[in-house]
Amino acid sequence: MQQQQLVDEIKVLMDLVARNTTMLADSVMEIDVDEYTDPSQFQREKTELFRNYPQFVGPSCVVPEAGDYFAFDDTGVPILIVRQPDKSLRAFVNICSHRGAPLNECDHGKAKKGRMFSCPYHGWTYDLEGKLVGVPFGKEGFDTIDRDALGLKTLDLQEKHGMIFVMPNPELTFNIDDVLGGIQERLSGFGFEESFYLGAKQVFTDFSWKLNMDTFHEYYHFEFLHPNSIATMAYSNVATYRQYGRNHSMGSPTLQINELKDVPESEWVPMNYSSYVNYIFPNTVIFVVADHFQTWRVYPIAPDRSVVYHSMFLPQEPATPEQRQEYEAYFQMINDVAVAEDYSLVDKVNRGLKAGIPRNVIIGRNEPGVQNMHRQLKGVLG
Q1: Is the pTM higher than 0.90?
Q2: What is the 3-state secondary structure (H, E, C) of 218-282?
């Protein structure tokens, strides 16, 4: 958002605080508990949401320079994304044409000599465009192969507004504007192209990926679940809500927001008094606060197991080792709060869901973000 949009948002948040309310959905929603636990629905989700639907990879700054790569295999398809010399991006199925090993040894980094990938199994080598350019002992051992036909299989990748999306299914393509649904208006100006990627933390959880996602989409729980952490900084059950296609965005006021009543509007620094949760369907949240942003990507492993990647992005690279250590400590603290407070409670919720008692999960009008996520899931899955 630009300055005037942020100012307008602050005014809406101040009004909600004054009236002690939040933006509301049209009605209460009920979800059959089986939607969290049914194995057949889980398999459809894996296929339709994580193989046949475009996946948000991250902001453009995760692969800033030519030869930089980012890799993940959490959709069930190993994916390798590479920045080209002309600054464009390409995506490939991360499977060596020889015996199927992945070409990288970590989730992000730089190609060898900035221009090639060599399979760690037998050394077959590919350039940044995915062409097979080297086969050790090739003339004798592989004299009949067609190297031109054995390059890496390409995937549809699109980069726009500082955001990267990829289609895991090599047989499908997508329209990035349809996927964004206009949410780029809400995310502009937050440094997606030039921020510094501090890194990611991986957390495994023993419950449904949807239970994991539910925790991000409402501020109703702050007062009760986070009394000594988030509730000391932000209002509970107060938020704006705006929809963008299948995505949505929510704004939250800090407890100090009314200080702005005594400050001329021209001097407002809105990001000091608000934060934003932005949902990218189906499995990503972009959390924007005063001086940085974070992404949380959640992937299903089994009906009752999922994995979370929590990443942090800073305005610029830390200037000193001490400064980096401070940011790392803050990053760890945020992650620890999520694990100790959110995930531990959701684990107990999961036990109730698995108890085999037929019932509905109730989602209130004051939880429009949770409602939207489940509404969009139904829209895709039927």
Answers
A1: yes
A2: CCCCHHHHCCCCHHHCECCCCCCCEEECCEEEEEEEECCHHHHHHCCHHHCCHHHCEEEEEEECC
